[in-house]
Structures are given as C-alpha cells and as structure tokens.
Amino acid sequence: MEAFVSRVDGHIKPGKTFIFWDLDENHTAVGLVGLGKKCKDIDRLECIDPDKEAVRVAAAAGCRALQEAGMSTIMVDDMDDPEAAGEGSTLGMWKFQECKSEQKTPPQICLLVQPYDGSEISVCWEKGVEKANAQNDARRLTDMPSNLMTPTLFATEIERLYRGLDIYVDVHEKDWIASKNMNAFLAVAKGSCESPKFLEITYNRCSGRPMVFVGKGVTFDSGGISIKPSKDMDQMRGDMGGAAACAAALKCIAMLNIRANIKLFIPVCENMPSGNATKPGDIVRAMNGKTIAINNTDAEGRLILADALSFANTFDPIWVMSVATLTGAMQVALGTAATGVFSSSNELYDILQNAGSLTGDRVWRFPLWKHYTDEITKDAAFDVNNIGKGVGGGSCTAAAFLNQFVCKTTPFMHLDIASVSGPATVIPYLYKGMTGRPTRTLIEFVKMQVKPF
C-alpha cells in the first residue's frame, strides 16, 4: 500500500501527524505532519538551525505514523529542505534488530516527485539519505554485541563497509603494533585473549597534506583491573562509538565524492581483567617516548589514542581530530544535548560548531588549558599520569592528556562523544539504542573545508 507524507506549516505542533484515507486513487493514505513556525536563520543561542531540525522531526514522525498504519511504500514531500527530509525519513525508520529471530521489514521510502523539474531536489534528497545511512552504519556497529564485534570482526566489518569504494584499509597486527613501540595501546589490549588490531585507512581525492581522524575502538570495556560496576556494563559494547562514527563518516565522504585527503587511524582492542592485565600503578613508554603512569586501568581510551595520535604525527597532517567515548564526566556535564569539544584552534572549532548547527547534532567547547595539563604532568617519577590529581574536571584532564601526544604545531581537536553516543536518547527521529552521533557533523565538517568539483 502506498502513502505519502506532506507538511503543514503554521501553528501545528512540530511532528504532530494526521492520517487521511482514500483521498485519491493513487495513494491509500496521506499523512500531514506539522512543521511549526518557520524561522529565519540559525538560532545562535541554541546553536541549531530550527527549520532543518523541524523537517527532520516531521519527516520521521510522518513516516512512522504511516508505517504503523501498515504502509509498505511511503513517498515524502521535500518540505522545502529535501536534504533534511531525506535525513529524518532514513534515520527515523531505522532501528537495530539484527539479533532478533524475526525482523520487521521497514517500508520503502522515496521522494515525492512534484510536477516541476526536481533534479536538484532529488540530488539534495539523496545527499540526506547518504548521510543518514552513514549514521545508521555507525548505529549498527556500536549496537552490535561485543561477542559479535571483536577487534578481528570489527576490522572485517570496516573492510566490508568500504567495499567498492576508493578507500584503502590496512589492518596491522600485534607484531606491527609492537614494532612501532605502541606500548600504551598494548598495555590496554594485554588483558584480553582477543588480539588487537590497528586500522590505517586512506581516502585520497586531492593532493597535499592529509586531514587526520583518530577513532577510539574499544569493542568492550570492562574497566580492566579497575573494573566497572556491573550495572549497565552491557552498554560498553558501544565504547568503539568514536571509531564507528569516523569510519561511517568516511564512507559517506567517499559516496559523496568529496575532494579531500583523509587518513583515519583506529586502534581496536578489548579492555579486560585477567592475569595478564595491566595493573594500577604500572608505567609504560608510549610511541612518542613519553612515560605514562597508568593509575586507573578504566582510563584506557586515552592510552590507545596516545599511540594513535603519535603515529598520526608522522604524516604531517593539516589537523588531527580524535573522536572517542572518553569520559563519563562529559555525560554529567552535557547530558545528551551535545558533543564536548576541546580545540587548540578557534578557526576549526567555529567550522565544527557551524557544522553541528546545520546537522542538528550540536557541539560545545570546553577548555584545553595549562591548568589541566599541570594536573597530569607534574610528577618526579614519570612524564604523564592517565588520571588527574585534582577533584573534578575529568573530561578536561583527559583532553589535556591526549594533547601531550600531538605535535604542538598541529591544530588539534578532541571530541568526547560519551554524552551523545547512547543508548538513551531524546532525539525524536532516533529510536532508543546507540545513536551513531556525531557522524553527520563530521561529514559536514570536512565538506565545509574542501572545494567542490
């Protein structure tokens, strides 16, 4: 049965949907959905484009209502923003059900073609669909249970994700990792029987120095010897959310033929307690030569990122960005409203904030101050501590730690996505589960810095 979603401008509550039956012979049902009042521009106080977000909410709400009414094919009006309509429709219909014996087939979603030249509208719609599909890829990777997403299986999934695209994946094994003196990474991995992997991923569509992403790829985080409480520990299957978001964003960048030179590095491992596990108080030497006191084995993400960031320095990058579910403190600070960002570059942060305003997946800046660096570096026995001495500020000391492994002349941004990765979410067009955020913001961030073909 066919149906279509159209919009209602004005004072109807955004996302409020009405279904009408048998209005014409071509469509079984028509869904009318409210967009609310139209705004003129981005709301700088809220850091969001309210019109784009209203379209995403409306498209998802209309599609869900028609799906519940039994429609198998749904055509969506462009709502004056076909890209946002494509995003909302595609994100709103997807949910993780891969481990269910009986899976529900979602309805087919397509653009309702209007009686005028819709070529540009169709292109924008497809861009929105591609961006949403990328976020759905990240949602799938992070929601997969850890026994089905080990480091080896994660590497295989990434290779499958890029099949047929101009993206090259080198999967480096444990011997290679050891040869690069990535001892901080190995210190985390040694507690697990699963072998670590280091993924070096290349997308090169232009000349010049690369942009570099580094994604945290802990496929399960028990906390190691500093073990986590058992309550909600199952959510740690998503501790590779940074890696998933970066990998999915890169796929979309390739699908959209964005002209960029990008390197993505993903250290992948489990953090487990065992007789081989790193103990609190152990000291290791990272790839860049700095010694690290591991006083809390549950502060493991920064350890594997330290070596990946050190490796990134060897490519003379334009900038380096780490993306990680790094600290529970960020969730305390921001709830689920935004990704926390630490940046050594005002210019790059401004670009990222604009990208987040357009995607509806916002970011908020935190300080990368010497105050926090002092808390992790002032000790006579070692160079860096993996936890801060002071009370509070855990997200800030974590970012200061990472900054110790980036070349001082290279612009650096760290995205702590622990606040937005899920599984709890208040985003109207996302079902409960891992969110895949901020995949679309990463795509838009790169797109804003490159020249179109």
From TrEMBL:
Keywords: Aminopeptidase, Hydrolase, Protease
Catalyzed chemical reaction(s): S-benzyl-L-cysteinylglycine + H2O = S-benzyl-L-cysteine + glycine; L-cysteinylglycine + H2O = L-cysteine + glycine; an S-substituted L-cysteinylglycine + H2O = an S-substituted L-cysteine + glycine
Domain Cytosol aminopeptidase: 296-303
Keyword Cytoplasm: no
MF terms (GO), sorted A to Z: manganese ion binding; metalloaminopeptidase activity
Record keyword Hydrolase present: yes
Gene Ontology BP, a term: proteolysis
An example Gene Ontology CC term for this record: cytoplasm
InterPro entries: Leucine_aapep/pepB, Macro_dom-like, Peptidase_M17_C, Peptidase_M17_N
EC supergroup of this enzyme: hydrolase
EC number(s) per entry: 3.4.13.23
Family: Belongs to the peptidase M17 family.
Primary role: Cytosolic metallopeptidase that catalyzes the removal of unsubstituted N-terminal hydrophobic amino acids from various peptides. The presence of Zn(2+) ions is essential for the peptidase activity, and the association with other cofactors can modulate the substrate spectificity of the enzyme. For instance, in the presence of Mn(2+), it displays a specific Cys-Gly hydrolyzing activity of Cys-Gly-S-conjugates. Involved in the metabolism of glutathione and in the degradation of glutathione S-conjugates, which may play a role in the control of the cell redox status.
Entry protein name: Cytosol aminopeptidase
